[in-house]
Amino acid sequence: MSPEVKAFFDEATNTISYIVRDPNGSSCAIIDSVLDFDYASGRTDTASADRIIKWVKQEGLSVEWLLETHVHADHLSAAPYIQQALGGKIGIGDRIKVVQETFGKVFNEGTEFERDGSQFDQLFAEGDSFMIGQLRGDVLHTPGHTPACLTYVIGDAAFVGDTLFMPDFGTARCDFPGGSSRMLYDSVQKILALPDATRIFVGHDYKAPGREEYAWETTVGEQKTRNIHVGDGKSRDEFVKMRDERDASLPMPKLIIPSLQVNMRAGHMPKPDDKGDVFLKVPVNKL
Ligand SMILES: [Fe+2]
Fold first, then answer.
1. Ligand 1 mean position, distance from CA 163 (Å)
2. Cα 57 to averaged position of ligand 1 atoms, centre (Å)
3. 156 CA distance to ligand 1 centroid (A)?
4. How far, in Å, from the CA of 69 to the mean position of ligand 1?
5. Within 13 Å and on the Cβ side, how many CA atoms surround 70?
6. pTM, rounded to two decimals
7. Starting at the edge strand that comes first in sequence, how are the strands of the sheet with 157-161 ordered?
8. Which residues span the domain enclosing 203?
9. What is the CATH classification number for the domain harbouring 18?
10. Is residue 264, in this structure, part of any structural domain at all?
């Protein structure tokens, strides 16, 4: 089955959010939504999420799932905001517990921050499946960028998050805590083992050098032959060397500090204080 896929590109964070629709009905899933955040002022905005909500209402869709491919470090998730407006269950990989353990420590969260994934409605593991109306989704655990990364294979479409980018851009960094270039290479092989015609939808696009337009859809076949990091039979050792060297030169994403604190809570802000005010922390010399 071939789901209808509607993409929403967020200029501020280069994120692509997707609405994936059962072609035989009105059920849909929303993957990797964005809550706008201006770090300088500490203000959130829902313009990006409202665009998605508007589309869902216009098309008369019913949201069954709000899926996260992983705990993003470059944007805040709008899943709880969209859930309040449209319903649906928030899902992520069950290795989220490892991510919560790591960043619970980094942000000195104390015992009230639970590290069991209970902030999410559904935790998925390798081999799990789920339904969007009559459309079946299968879960691949594809760690490397983070330990909890998932690829959602829905009909003939694979939503790979930050495991693979467009063939001319390559792959995502693997230097966040719990990341591993070796693991990423193995995860990519899992995705490339899907049929060649499988459509691949990536989580970010930054326009590769020489490319004028943003792009987010490719295929397994194209990635196998043309991906500059892993295509054309690149070996694991070649990849690991390239990836690790490159990662050592990358700056931290602008929104990593607010993003992790919010996304490890399924997109919820930390608990308000007794006056109802909400604060995020900045750990000094920890990341
Ligand atoms: Fe990411």
1. 8
2. 28
3. 23
4. 8
5. 30
6. 0.97
7. 129-132, 135-141, 150-154, 157-161, 199-202, 217-219
8. 4-254
9. 3.60.15.10
10. no
